[in-house]
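Q: Can I borrow your eye for a moment on a structure tokenisation matter? Would you mind producing a protein record, from residues through to fold? Write it directly below this note and I will take it from there.
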Amino acid sequence: MTAAAPVTRFAPSPTGYLHIGGARTALFNWLYARGRGGRFLLRIEDTDRARSTPEATAAILKGLTWLGLDWDGEPISQFARQPRHAEVARQMLEAGTAYRCYSTPAEIEAWRAGHPNQTFVSPWRDADPASRPDAPFAIRLRAPRTGETVIRDAVQGDVVFRNDQLDDMVLLRSDGTPTYMHAVVVDDHDMNVTHVIRGDDHLTNAARQVQVYQAMGWDIPVFAHIPLIHGPDGKKLSKRHGAVGLHDYAAMGYPAAAMRNYLARLGWSHGDDELFDDAQARAWFDLDGIGKAPARLDFKKLEHVSGHHIGTMPQATLLDELSAFRAEVGDPPLTDIQLARLTPALDVLKHKARTYPQLLEQGHFALIDRPVQPDAKAQAALDTVSLRILSELTAALQHVSWTRDALEAAAHQVAEANGIGLGKVAAPVRAALAGRTSTPSVFDMMLALGRDETLARLADAAG
């Protein structure tokens, strides 16, 4: 890694599942760093001890791992760094860029009641702290009161905040614990973060955090505040729009590669390219391709992207993915016999499926054993006439070579002999081989099942 290589970070709070918006933020940081030979770091912002849980941390790590986003080094606990946060606050106090504030919560509340719609102005900003030597105090930033703070944002452009609208934020509470706003700056500085890519709901935070950088004389990272994800109706994404947790998409059977592709395009573009792989995404991704408007979740586009990735996935990879999906949803592993039947059909099945459940549903015929139990619709297709046709087809297939052309020729012969169309022959065959009326091509099923299993299932159904 060269000296100029970027360092990005993803810093979730472990208070619940990994939101799809957080997953996209992590992806953008990962793409930016990986595409430039940089480092992608993970920090768990677990200072809220009442809400942070080990289970949520584990869920976040699991989600990132499933999505295929690897991070450099060990995840950093923000809570564990509290002594360092306090140390920096005391340095600022000694340098005069921060001050002791003895105002109690009741006094602050009373001040705000008398000054509605104004930021709190501490009476201790310029007072002599010697008058209350033993009283508990918070350490506040001595923020500039005049002029402007400008965030030079790589996505939003220059964003200007009037300093008289920004309060002297608390760095260290009276109990000695650091605030989140202060801890983030110290952590990003100590982690050598060069680019802070995060949701634009943090844009106001950036104005106050920049003042801490300036007070410490630290280099300010490049900020890139990305618009949030909205639902199809243009409103803030919520559970009423459907799945909002990354784990939901994993459980619905979308490939991780498809999610990376789709999430990358959700608010970022590279010309008209819609479908791409990881190597292309890493090479193309840049901050100037991120739009300013909120992105809208579109499940139809996601299914299209997902279908593309399933259709182009190598067979061995697809089998591994299917096995991992079944394990994720609690289904038993595929047996050797099931794999032997399913594998030959994958090249057909994968081009019609948009999710893993759809593929497995179409491959149902390969996953069941004899005797096949037809459902109600399939049973109706096995009437007396159909059973006679099945018997004739079974006899015709006994000695043909097991190729698609030979199988089709035999089926056409039976159809012509009975004066019916091929569909009338296919219907009972579907019922016999899969126990269903909606299946892949009967000839694809025959080739996947092989001669012995196909003839046995036909014979079972024909009685």
Notes: The CA atoms of residues 136 and 174 lie 6 Å apart.
